[in-house]
Amino acid sequence: MNLIETKDLTVRLGGADILSGVTMTILPGEIVTIVGPNGSGKSTLLRSILGIQALASGSVTRKTGLRIGYVPQRLHIDRPMPMTARRFLSLPQRCTDAQATRVLARCGVAGVENRQLADLSGGQLQRVLLARALLNQPEILILDEPTQGLDQPGEAAFYQLIEEVRRETGAAVLLVSHDLHVVMAASDRVICLNGHVCCQGAPDVVRDAPEYRALFGFGTQGALALYRHDHDHNHGPGQGTPHQHGPDCNHSHSHSTAKEAQDHV
Amino acid sequence: MFDDFLLRAAVAGIGLAVATGPLGAFVVWRRMAYFGDATSHAAILGVALALALSLPIALGTMLVALAMALTVSALAAKGWAVDTTLGVLAHSALAFGLVAISFVPGVRADMSGLLFGDILAVSKQDLAFVWGGAGAILALLLWRWQALLTATLSESLAHASGLNPDRERLALTIALAIVVAVALKIVGALLISAMLIIPAATARSLSRSPETMAILAVLIGGASVLAGLQLSLQFDTPAGPSIIAVAALAFILSTVISPLKTR
Description:
Largest sheet of chain A: 6 strands, mixed
Low-confidence stretches of chain B: none
Structural class of chain A: alpha/beta
CATH architecture of the largest domain in chain A: 3-Layer(aba) Sandwich
CATH class of the largest domain in chain A: Alpha Beta
CATH superfamily of chain B: ABC transporter involved in vitamin B12 uptake, BtuC
Number of domains of chain B: 1
Oligomer: heterodimer
Helix content of chain A: 25-40%
Shape of chain B: globular
Number of strands of chain B: 0
Radius of gyration of chain B: 18 Å
């Protein structure tokens, strides 16, 4: 049975369609990543799924009684509220000390109970947020750009943790990202969003889809190569197949022509 | 009991501190300081309207304060620049209130009481009203405490937990309107938000959890009331401003102490 299903979901803000005709489903236990450029409506889609965003048309169906563990994009810890990690875990449902200790240890931040949230590093804070989300034994974890502000090793470690959690608990994972480095390789399914669903499917299917390439170019493969070193486009030295490189592209071939230098974004 | 005017003043002031402590903490956490200003300045307009319509003054102030708070919330939700909107509304409310009240005969003389409070003239009836209002605010905050904290940290987190942040915001708005009516007699329209913010801000640097901050704010507010009354008696200074002055000194002290304590 589907945990979440959207049908022809359309959201209009200020007269403009932010999302139009988005149809997607999330099955139990799968990791689904929504990728898309800035302003493509990723966060709006998440808000619709959570029931925060009013729809212009279409529908969102959640399995009845679905337990959601939500990890927000950021917390307003800049706000002058004193808050320890332990106290935070008890918001809004109180948990026992034993539960708190266990879930913090599981997320790799054992012993931070008495630290102030504001004093935690970005990576630690994300793990505390994840720990809180795990407390009510969620059937699905929803994460909104959970690794913003983490460096690449931190990001990779965080996604690895999510994969482990999924394996242990069987919870589905829905996450949103605008950076494609490590995310895609860890996903079962990728939904490429740009106001509408451009394409979706297994990571390597999406990666090869022309719609995806039109949005992101080829460059992300360099980063994907962190996980799999299978460059699927061939070019000899000097051959100069025109393609774009993302900022983190690390596959090497010479850029000799001025034409290519322009393509290089 | 409560025949001594000084005792009545002290008990009323402490009653106010019980309400402003936790409510003030939320004002600080949510950066609503200017919001508190606009709401409390509207109280004078409320007094004028109550006198003109021969309604109970507390009811008039509460209704106008509530109307002001809801207006500000609605404008902010519509995307008006909150800073400017609040600045315009806060001072317009004050100006219109002062103009309106000048039409009501006999109140002119009592203007400073409206602006700065008249805690030494608190009656037994006032006392019952102050503690009734403070009790209502405290009950409301305690009832919504977990939800209020969650919504203050992150609205989307609250949503995902099945809470409605708008409802929590409304609870705070109502509490703020009640506190304005309660505090008018004690510290006056100009210093209500000071009573909200200063004890809470003082407690901030000394606290590690939201609960300790709220409780400390009550204690600091209560101590400021007692010390301010004492000062006022000894040096014949106005009571309301003396209370706030003591709270402000406590705040300065706390900024000196806290770095020594934590680092």
